[in-house]
Amino acid sequence: MEAEKPISAEDLLTRHQWLNRYKGELVGWNRLIDDLACQIEQRYAEHGEPLNAETFRVRQVKEKFGELRFYCDSSVPIQDLIQQATLKSNSICQECGVAGQLMQNDRLWLRTLCEKHAGDDYKPRPSLKKITVDGVTFTFFDEGQLDALMPSNGTRIPKSS
Ligand SMILES: [Zn+2]
Questions:
Q1: Residue pLDDT, tens place only, 42-85
Q2: Ligand 1: centre distance to CA 94 (Å)
Q3: How far is the CA of 135 from the centre of ligand 1 (A)?
Q4: What are phi and psi of 121, to 5 degrees?
């Protein structure tokens, strides 16, 4: 993969002013968030809906358990786009944006990091399953995340006990 410089918070917010409540602090993921923002803009365009403070509101953008969490209110359905970005965040270093993986330290804190940013404290988390889609490897650790892959038609595969 080509090494790309992370997008600065300033560039990201210049490109997508409607993201204004996100301050760009997840430096390594700003390129991922930029991609997501472009997809959201495209989705709004497809629905013929303007994208502004009345139709879209960022509630919170943060890292949790080593994953991107993107909470918002939108007038157009975009959950699938957000879900894909969250899955992709598990393979991008949250510090610098190069390829990374979910790591944990001995206090079981989870972060997605490259080798360099993992340092001596963080070690790769043992994974349950890996799936590669369009050259992007998704790693899944629990049944909840596997469910997330299923088509969202309201039915769920029953959990085996
Ligand atoms: Zn890194």
A1: 999 999 999 998 999 999 999 999 999 999 999 999 999 999 99
A2: 7
A3: 20
A4: -80, -35
